Amino acid sequence: MLKTYLVTGGAGFIGSNLIQELLQDSNNKVICIDNFDSYYSKEVKLNNINRSRDNINFEFYDIDILDLLSLKEIFKKYNFNYIIHLAAKAGVRSSFENPLDYAQVNVLGTLNLLDIAKDYNIKKFIFASSSSVYGVNKGLFSEGMKLGKPISPYAASKISAENFCYTYNINYNIPIICLRFFTVYGPYQRPDLAISKFTKFIIENKKIPFYGNGETKRDYTYIDDIISGIISSINYDTTNFEIINLGSNNPITLSNLVEILEQNLGKKASFEKMKIPNGDVPSTFADLTKAEKLLNYKPQINISTGIEKFISWFKENYYK
Ligand SMILES: NC(=O)c1ccc[n+]([C@@H]2O[C@H](COP(=O)([O-])OP(=O)(O)OC[C@H]3O[C@@H](n4cnc5c(N)ncnc54)[C@H](O)[C@@H]3O)[C@@H](O)[C@H]2O)c1
Predict the structure, then answer these.
(1) pLDDT tens across 186-222, in order?
(2) Which residue of 138, 188, 241, 273 has the fewest C-beta atoms within 10 A of its own C-beta?
(3) Which residues line ligand 1 (CB under 6 A)?
């Protein structure tokens, strides 16, 4: 039986990789909406979705999730079974420059989708949340931890959207999973993220922007592991509201990340030292107990293998 998916933000990094995976199954029809938000180049996003364009089960619409009327039309037209809501203003640092835009897109945009979804028989609504909701914390980040101390407008917008997800689940019975992604990397990665930027700068002999003393830690997670976690969440139906971490459970320092990139590129980096910007947390560290129990999620790709795969994609795409 044909299953129909709405993927919002599907021209982005995670969305375009997810769509490729969904289209492997000819029983899946994928409708992608994206407004080519100016956070990074439209060209990169067109390149992301061009991979899926010739599949007859794929359709793309240039729609803003703040455009309620267009959203309503698209829901009416397709009667979606699954909604994977990835569209967002991404990026912690730039959320200080445009906090209102972040609140609008990440909170009101999510609310628009939930409010339309309540009138349809949706089998699962997946919301892309973030490790940033944990704020400044030590040790493992577990889903049951008390939140309430977001240190960036981006983090605050994700907590707020998670709250609306709960409200719509409890009142309208929409089955919802909020997935808290931990620093995702891999082919088609956003150009603003450290791994992309550092790789480009090392190749081009430019100084990499290096924040603090290199001791900040991130639980970098390879895109294929995130995609397999999203697919398991789509299929999970034991309970109808969950918040689940998708990470790697293996944080590494910024200095360590640079060393791995240098080894893979066979070149030394040079640095432009900078102060740690507002909003950057000292560490992230995913507790995956719940993901493993509910989704059988076990990350497969360690950082060395992941970086090797990323770099070979990066060179192939940008330095042929
Ligand atoms: N990449 C990560 O490390 C990471 C970590 C935690 C959470 N997330 C979340 O996962 C989701 C996907 O992230 P990504 O890295 O693929 O980012 P991305 O920027 O590559 O993708 C997001 C997409 O949403 C689109 N978009 C933005 N505003 C829109 C609007 N108003 N209407 C329609 N489309 C809009 C953008 O054009 C973009 O293509 C986001 O919600 C992000 O906050 C990502």
Answers:
(1) 999 999 899 999 999 999 999 999 999 999 999 999 9
(2) 138
(3) 9, 11-15, 33-37, 39, 45, 64-66, 86-90, 105, 109, 128, 130, 181, 183-184, 190
